[in-house]
Design brief:
Elements lengths: L1 H23 L8 E5 L5 H11 L5 H10 L9 E5 L5 H10 L4 E5 L6 H10 L12 H8 L14 E5 L4 H21 L10 H14 L6 H14 L6 H8 L9 H5 L22 H8 L8 E4 L5 E4 L2 H17 L5
Antiparallel strand pairs: 1-2, 3-4, 5-6
Helix pairs in contact: 2-3, 7-12, 8-9, 8-12, 9-12
Amino acid sequence: MIWAAGMGLLAGLLVGTGLAVHYWQKPLAEAPTTLTVEPGQSMPAIAAAIHEVQPAIPTRVIDWTARFRGQARSIQAGEYEVRPDDRLASLLDRMVAGDVIEYRFTVPEGVTAQAFLDQLAEAPRIRRTLDELTPSAVIEALDLPVEHLEGWLFPDTYQYPAGTTDRALIQRAFDQMREALDAAWAARADDLPLEAPYEALILASVIEKETGLSGERGEVAGVFVNRLKRGMRLQTDPTVIYGMGKDYDGRLYSRHLREDTPYNTYTRDGLPPTPIALPSSASLAAATRPAETDALYFVADGSGGHAFSRTLKEHNRAVARWRAIKREQGERP
């Protein structure tokens, strides 16, 4: 009798395992779909959610499979893509690994901190925890150790799972910029006329706004460093534009260069008081290790780059060429 009962139990297990293998081979979806596992969700509830995606697989089979494979307590919360080639085992493996769907938003180099926050506000599947996305409100809410947020958020493409908080992404961008600045400052040139990493951040932001050409950043930085060493004013238009704020309508006139603001480097010595944009790693590197050059001036050359000059006479000729090009293009120089 004991032998017969044992054989019956073995037969039942073989049949059950055979059925399980049959279900394990079934595709989970005909087209990609999503499945969300909530934090703290039980295995039976997760099994029920998978059953809704593929009703042909009983909930109890899904639950039993996860327990049989030792995965029932290891599934991570998040949003998962269920693919047409998925089988139950492969989905469970990805859920244990936390292979969740990731979203992204991209912040270009050279935009302002407020532009970063505006793009964050539009990013998909972020959990909103901050009432106000302005630089001052963010500094207060995150208790950031800075007085001005400008320059302190790293421009990059940020990938994140659904449910990531706005607070977490801002902190991540701040930490990334601080790490990039610290690394650039540690590798700085010996004779740099800058006293602190923050000054390098300010200069990098000006370089970022002056040129988008990677090959020019070092030489632009060299010009600014040469001027700082000689006590010459930087005389750079992007700082004037930043100081104009909302009054800037896309056109800069000579009268604007004479209107004094804290950011007008035509009327004030040295660097502006804060960064004027979010600089890239390349601009941080240029600011801290500028190219060796004798140039003290540069102006647009009409081809997307700049003409660099050592003397004011050379610079004036370059300016005249640029103005001629603008007239030929029918634009105001």
